[in-house]
Amino acid sequence: MSRNDTRSPDLFPVLSRGRHRNPRKGACLMELVSYLAGERWSDHPECTHPLLAELARDVNDFTSDAGRSELGRLAPSVIGLTSDDLRLDARIALRAATTALPVAAVGRQHALAVAVLACERMLADLEGRPAGLEPASQQALAAVPEAQRWARGFTREVPIAPKGFRRHAAPNIVRCATRGIAQACIPDPDMMLRGLLTATIADCQAWLRQHTEEPAVDATPAEWEGSAVPAPRGWERGWS
Question: Does 16 score more than 90 pLDDT?
Answer without folding.
Answer: no
